[in-house]
Amino acid sequence: MTDSIMSKAATMExxxxxxxxxxxxxxxxxxxxAAKLQWxxxxxxxxxxxxxxxxxxxxxxxxxxxxxxAEGIIPTSSIKGxxxxxxxxxSSMTAEELTRGVAVEKLETxxxxxxxxxxxTKQMISERFGRGSRTVDLELEAQIEVLRDTKRKYENVxxxxxxxxxxxxNMVQTQHALGDTFADLSQKSPELRDEFGYNAETQKxxxxxxxxxxxxxxxxxxxxxxxxxxxxxxxxMTIKMYENARLEFDAYRSDLEELSLGPRxxxxxxxxxxxxxQYQVHKEKYERLRSDVIIKLKFLEENKVKVxxxxxxxxxxxxxxxxxxxxxxxxxxxxxxxxxxxxxxxDKPSWLEEQ
Length: 355
What we know:
The structure is a single chain. By secondary structure, the protein is an all-alpha fold. The protein is 77% helix and 2% strand. It has a two-stranded antiparallel ribbon. Helix 4 runs antiparallel to helix 5 and helix 5 (193-260) packs antiparallel against helix 6 (266-323).
């Protein structure tokens, strides 16, 4: 009886857990409990085989005889996956190191941004309350102020020109409708056919000349809009960057001056050297943007004069020719400035709808 029980215990496989260690049963467990556990495991393995077929990765190679010990059981998955496990572990470590490096870099960036913001805010408050000094370029700041004032005035011209375009467009549409009405009445009123006919022709001619004038005014509005909202705005964006660089430069200059007035021990000297480097970096940035602003202001002034000379001449000649009733001169003005009107009946939206 005893030999039979021992032979059964010897033929039972000891379950192996996920990390390759043999599962141990408590010493006080009975062989019946071990048999029940083994039967449960065998039943699960059987169900898995019936569903998905045999899995070679989960089979075991037994070294020794039929009743060999657990140390002789070698999972094939551990043989096949050892190199893969080592490779995936190395990849995981590399990915973790990269993630940690990115996090450290972002933290350093946020730290520098916070320190820079603090210094600039401190400098701004000091300037506002008259306690801090600021770098002033009187000539350049005067040119910047002139540009801002010019932009405000040109924006007003643009607003008025658009209002004129809108009102004149409505008048031309009214003339067109009036001409159609006169032409219809000329056909239906024999006793006033000639009078209605003359007025219909006059309104159609005025409508045609009005559309030509609208083409000239639209070109004028488009050019002023480009000058104000693109060319001038681009220069003002560079000026804004220059002003921010000036504030940073003064902030780090003030910081360096404060440190220079303090003690001269080793720690203080290290901080002074770091502040000197930051001061030099922001000084170079300030001078570079200052040079960019000077160049852009110069080219903007030249471009503004060139554009406005052409547009003001166009506006004057077109308005004069229209109100003088000189259709030939009005058409010649559009040819002179290479303005092409939209063909009548085109499906494209009108120039007014594009505004």
